[in-house]
Design a protein that fits this description.
- The complex is a heterodimer of chains A (398) and B (221).
- In chain A, strand 3 and strand 4 form a beta hairpin.
- Chain A has 398 residues and is of the alpha/beta class.
- Chain B is of the alpha/beta class.
- Chain B folds into 2 domains: 123 residues, Periplasmic binding protein-like II (D-Maltodextrin-Binding Protein, domain 2, 3-Layer(aba) Sandwich); 86 residues, D-Maltodextrin-Binding Protein, domain 2 (3-Layer(aba) Sandwich).
- Chain B contains 8 helices and 11 strands.
- In chain B, the strands form 2 sheets. In chain B, strands 2-3-1-4-11-5 form a 6-stranded mixed beta sheet, sandwiched between helices. In chain B, strands 8-7-9-6-10 form a 5-stranded mixed beta sheet.
- The longest helix of chain B has 20 residues.
- Classes of the chains: A alpha/beta (398), B alpha/beta (221).
- Chains A and B meet through helix 8 of A and helix 2, strand 5 and helix 7 of B.
- Chain B: InterPro entries: ATP_PRibTrfase_cat, ATP_PRibTrfase_CS, ATP_PRibTrfase_HisG, ATP_PRibTrfase_HisG_short.
């Protein structure tokens, strides 16, 4: 680290996994976030802002232990453990269960904000990153799930993405199969872990040792490959006999039917192999993918028990979209969401500042974006400034 | 050329020992290119007709290419997957390249139990695997990461123990090293990027099934 450092030169760094958004990136981020905020408002969602820091005990209520080791933690003055929020679903559930008690149900809320997770940083995956998302709290019907998925599709379209696909699954399909079988708790955890880590070879090895019947082994091994359109659902239906799995499939069919009416079903595939990494999901789950991005761009699902752990008994569903991932995908797919042109630069020579201010005022009122020089310039200097700052036009006041 | 091109499938192959059997196996299921060779000057080898790109990478880097989606699918040893801990699909055990990850000590240092080696120095190319193995046994060790010739470390007093990948054990014998524990067997794996596996599912799944059929044929013979 010191190897390349010049003596007496101090180069301040930002902490691991954080980044600056320079003007171009910041304006793209703002454009995407603005479009999303507008979209969510149009769909009748209200924005909520929650604290960046929460008590650790609040954050672990819903998230479970998996995320615990990925949280940034520290102490307050009274030695209580604080954490930077690792996702927004838990704070939203806390708000709904405490501040909105007795409000008309369901509640439709949205957020656009930063969250923090300690992980190996890479492109599109920093320790601090931005998410936009919605939650419907107080609704257990497929209509709510369908709305969330339709809104996820609209979000990606509004962000400027054209090519993407949503994989839709349901955790109960797998749970039903496992409950019906005679697997021990440990074995179930092993199987789930293999599925979550996408280790299909490991999954096969666990199943061979599990003592399950050949047909059950084949079925479980097949789950990560159950991928397709409506005919796949029918196929899956004939593969299982338990109620829970079948209800899961019926639920997916209902949601899909509604998505057809939203006119977004062409973006949606069924994928029964999706198990989101968060433990809190209880019903349908989905992930969005776009070419050129090696990890999902958005994800969400139903989490009916989380509000319960905050003392409010009602169903909830929602999704979150990674803002940096959207920006990265737009860039990789060669889509530029913002105008590069910066408007007008006003230069002025000595004693004409007052005139220039008036001029800037008029132009700004008419909707132009205008930068006013702060020091007097010659016409040639002003031209140079306009060019180097990237303004489309120059107004020179003399 | 990236995996954002939906028409093409990008396949990553590792340099070294696994290259030849990997290329051969993929060729059997129709995934090959005319000038596909480990010594190719070209960095990306393309088969226009089959819409395939091939890239050849250093073994330790291969999972990174897959995780980022720079390549859609690839073949790599389980040892590298265990060490790199990347987020990707491990689709198939291809059963070739069989080796084992093991613990060895110089004959003179042999003790009764593994826990008798506690707090000694372990030289290895695989610090993560070594650490998680000893950790799972409740034994604390000091780990020294080396990039090759691991057997040398105990001979010159850099470490007492080694964790390494061995195929036959001949090198161990030649250096008076004794295998004291097997961590796990290791073979070549067929892997895929998690998004490619969804967006290019039909194509990747077809190749997986063809490889599976090929492997099952080998067993019944």
């Amino acid at each position: 680290m010191f190897l390349f450092m010049k003596q007496h030169e101090f180069v301040p760094q930002v902490p691991y996994g954080t980044r600056d958004f320079l003007p171009r990136e910041a304006s793209q981020k703002r454009a995407v976030e603005g479009a999303l905020a507008q979209l969510f408002a149009n769909w009748g969602y209200d924005e909520v802002v929650t604290p960046t820091i929460e008590y650790l005990e609040t954050m672990t209520v819903g998230v479970g232990n998996d995320l615990d080791q990925h949280m940034f933690k520290f102490f307050d003055k009274n030695n209580r453990i604080l954490a930077l929020r690792p996702d927004m679903t838990t704070p939203m559930a806390r708000v709904a269960a405490t501040r909105f008690k007795g409000s008309p149900s369901p509640m439709k809320l949205f957020y656009i904000t930063n969250v923090f997770r300690y992980e190996q940083a890479q492109a599109g995956r920093q320790c601090e990153f931005y998410q936009a998302g919605v939650e419907i709290m107080g609704a257990s019907e497929p209509a709510a799930d369908a709305e969330v998925i339709a809104l996820a599709v609209e979000s990606m379209l509004k962000s400027g993405l054209q090519k993407f696909q949503i994989g839709l699954g349901q955790v109960d399909f797998i749970n039903g199969i496992m409950e019906q079988s005679e697997l021990s708790l440990v074995q179930r955890q092993q199987i789930k872990h293999a599925m979550v880590t996408r280790d299909l070879v490991g999954l096969g090895e666990i199943l061979v040792k599990s003592g399950l019947s050949q047909s059950d082994q084949t079925l479980l091994k097949h789950i990560p490959l159950l991928h397709g359109r409506e005919d796949m659902l029918k196929q899956a239906y004939s593969m299982v006999t338990n109620d829970k799995s079948r209800r899961a499939l019926d639920n997916l069919a209902n949601i899909y039917h509604l998505l057809e009416n939203y006119g977004v079903s062409q973006y949606v595939d069924f994928d029964l192999g999706i198990i989101r990494d968060f433990e809190y999901y209880t019903g349908m789950v989905f992930e969005g993918y776009t070419p050129g991005l090696g990890f999902p761009i958005c994800g969400g699902g139903r989490y009916d028990t989380m509000l319960n752990s905050f003392g409010m008994n009602c169903g909830a569903t929602g999704f979150a979209l990674g803002i940096e991932r959207v920006l990265l995908a737009l860039e990789r797919q060669g889509i530029d969401g913002t105008q590069n042109c910066k408007g007008i630069y006003i230069g002025w020579n000595k004693e004409n500042l007052v005139k220039a201010i008036k001029q800037a005022d008029t132009l700004r009122d008419s909707g132009c974006s205008v930068e006013l020089a702060v020091i007097p310039e010659s016409c040639a200097q002003a031209k140079e400034s306009q060019k180097s700052k990237g303004y489309e036009k120059l107004v020179y006041v003399e | 050329m990236t995996s954002s091109d939906m028409d093409y499938l990008t396949i990553a192959l590792p340099k070294g020992k696994l290259f030849a059997p990997s290329a051969e196996m993929l060729a059997k299921v129709g995934c090959t290119a005319e000038d596909l060779s480990e010594n190719s000057r070209k960095l990306v080898i393309t088969n226009e007709k089959e819409k395939l790109h091939f890239i050849i990478t250093k073994t330790a880097d291969l999972p990174t290419y897959i995780e980022y989606g720079a390549a859609d699918i690839g073949i790599i040893g389980k040892d590298v997957l265990l060490e790199e801990e990347k987020d990707l699909y491990e689709l198939l055990d291809l059963r070739f390249g069989l080796c084992r990850m093991m613990v060895a000590v110089p004959e003179a240092l042999k003790r009764e139990k593994l826990s008798d080696y506690a707090h000694m120095r372990v030289a290895t190319k695989y610090p993560r695997i070594a650490e998680s193995y000893f950790h799972s046994m409740g034994i604390q060790m000091e780990f020294i990461k080396l990039n090759g010739s691991i057997e040398l470390a105990p001979m010159v007093g850099l470490a007492e123990i080694i964790v390494d990948l061995v195929e036959t054990g001949r090198t161990l014998k030649a250096n008076n090293l004794l295998e004291v524990a097997t961590i796990q067997p290791v073979t070549a794996r067929f892997i895929a990027n998690r998004v490619s596996f969804k967006l290019k599912f039909d194509r990747i799944n077809r190749i997986t099934e063809e490889l599976r059929t090929l492997l099952e044929g080998v067993v019944t013979l």
